[in-house]
Specification:
Helices cover 41% and strands 23% of the residues. The strands form two sheets. Strands 1-2-4-6-7-8-9-10 form an eight-stranded parallel beta barrel, surrounded by six helices. Strands 3-5 form a two-stranded parallel sheet.
């Protein structure tokens, strides 16, 4: 994945997903869904020319294990996945899915632990939450050499700009007023 858009819409509602199908956005993140709808949403997104990323940890009815990833990789076929779980990232790579490992920046110990995991899993992107800490975006970017997506608690255009200026490849947000393309 080469992110050519600075804001990645993270969708919680079908209505928002449908409106994005008619927009000029290239990427859509499905944050919240259920297993029964997932295949249809991905197919509709692909038909509209969109690249669909699925937040595996938030799909109701999907177990984030080897068999769940097999189902995603062979049946649903999204363009990529997002997860906090290292094992999910490793499994997704077996199906040539673009991977985004989500990290919560809680404290120094958690950050150091995440650095070790990232070196092991080698995701395509790292999403840091909260994404409103420009200094941490720069540090994570420098320490890992993996493109960073800033997410969580980003509510204004100024915060989007600060994250991008700090080195984020993109910003993910569920705030639709920031989804201007």
């Amino acid at each position: 994945m080469s992110v050519n858009q600075q804001v990645l819409p993270a969708v919680k509602k079908i209505k928002d997903f449908e409106s994005l199908l008619e927009s000029n956005t290239e990427y859509i993140i499905l944050l919240d869904s259920r297993l029964g709808l997932l295949n249809k949403l991905v197919k509709v997104g692909h038909k509209a020319g969109k690249k669909i990323f699925v937040h595996v940890d938030l799909i109701q009815g999907l177990k984030a294990d080897d068999y769940g990833m097999e189902f995603l990789g062979q049946e649903v076929k999204p363009d990529g996945i997002i997860s906090t779980r290292s094992q999910v990232i490793l499994q997704a790579k077996k199906y040539n899915l673009c991977t985004v490992q989500r990290l919560f920046l809680i404290d120094s110990q958690a950050i150091n632990h995440h650095m070790k995991l990232i070196h092991k899993t080698q995701p395509d992107y790292v999403e840091v939450l909260p994404g409103i800490i420009p200094g941490m975006i720069t540090e994570i970017n420098d320490r890992l050499g993996v493109p960073v997506i800033a997410g969580g608690l980003i509510r204004t255009n100024e915060e989007v700009s600060q994250a991008i200026d700090a080195g984020a490849a993109a910003v993910s947000t569920s705030h639709s007023d920031l989804w201007r393309f």
